[in-house]
Amino acid sequence: MAHAPQDTHGKLHLDTLAIHAGQQPDPVHGAVMQPIVLSTTFAQEGPGAHKGFDYGRSGNPTRNALEGCIAALEGATHGLAYSSGCGATTNVLHLLRPGDHVVCGDDVYGGTFRIFDKVMKPMGIEASFIDMQDLGRVRAAMRPNTKLVWMETPSNPMLKIFDIAGVAEIAKAGGAPLVVDNTFATPMLQRPLDLGASIVVHSTTKYLNGHSDAVGGFVATSDDELGGRLRFLQNAIGAVPSPFDCYLVLRGLKTLPVRMRQHVASAREIAGKLERHPQVARVIYPGLASHPGHALAERQMRGPGGMISFDLKGNLDQSRAFLKALEVFACAESLGGVESLAEHPAIMTHASIPAENRRALGISDGLIRLSVGLEAIEDLWADLDRGFAAATRAG
Ligand SMILES: *Cc1c(COP(=O)(O)O)cnc(C)c1O
Fold first, then answer.
1. 66-120 per-position pLDDT tens digit
2. Short-list 353, 340, 348, 276, CA closest to 308
3. What CATH number is given for 256-394 in this structure?
4. Other C-beta atoms lying within 10 Å of the C-beta of residue 273
5. pLDDT per position as a tens digit, 133-178
6. 124 and which of 27, 98, 148, 333 could share a cystine (Cβ 3.0–4.6 Å)?
7. For the domain 14-253, what is the CATH code?
8. Residue 393 appears among annotated catalytic residues
9. Domain boundaries, the chain
10. How far apart are CA 38 and CA 33, in angstroms?
């Protein structure tokens, strides 16, 4: 492509934007792939006369390309990259002041809960955690000092689906921007800004990079005022990604559309098979008609995603035996990579959530979460069968 398709007006399809947005052949050498610019400083023709870059924390050409690409995918006019998803979250929360209040979904990423509980609370910023499946509860939780509404949909690990447009309307009426953590869905399956959200947050560590080899975060918005304040905070706080990591995420993004199609196709098939399995008490997957958020997911998403949670019948020893027996699925935290992962939320990713909160959310000792990767579906199912056999022997 001769021109830089920095299209944010919907003229190009997402499959095309994932490959080209924010990028153009290098004007000096014609290199088609985005160069990794490692230089921390940029020569100026005279004091203050630079070509848009002066210092590596404030701006970097490789980071710029990444910011342009993900912003285009989310349909945003401002994109900001960070050194981690938690770094992105922390930057957004620095829009707040002591005395401010946040309404937050009750099933958010453990690290996000920890930032609210252990970092923001001591600074005088309070959060109410509520089940946003009931819009009445969201409305009731709004206070005069509510300055932000935060949601994650699908949520983790219970894969609850929240009504983005419905909550956006309530947030707007209360004068608070709605932030949606879109890590699980990615812009391929869900675009929160189109549904009324003000800010989108990502851990690019997961699907956007997709290869489990770079930690990163992202924030996108089309609100100029918020975009300007976030750009100031990105530079002032300094949680910026390295140019090399920006390059890795840019490279990963090129296959995001095809990866997501396969993640969804494989997860659909495995969820259906799990639902018919005698050793499975319950399957949680928004693509199943049995999921309470199924109809809403069909409305606001273009696919139910690649994550599945299910309750294995039996005790904790049997859950351990199941996970230990797997050979293709790695027993590991994180998600969204090409490789399949299986984990035990109560012991692993959600151990930092108090046991009583876990119980209230439905995170039982039998709950297993799968990140369905891109391996052959036959090999994935044979592997799960190995786990079921091991769970039976441990019983
Ligand atoms: C992983 C994750 C985060 C945090 O991102 P890091 O890159 O690990 O800091 C935030 N939200 C969700 C939904 C996540 O899965």
1. 999 999 999 999 999 999 999 999 999 999 999 999 999 988 998 999 999 999 9
2. 340
3. 3.90.1150.10
4. 16
5. 999 999 999 999 999 999 999 998 899 999 999 999 999 999 999 9
6. 98
7. 3.40.640.10
8. no
9. 14-253, 256-394
10. 15
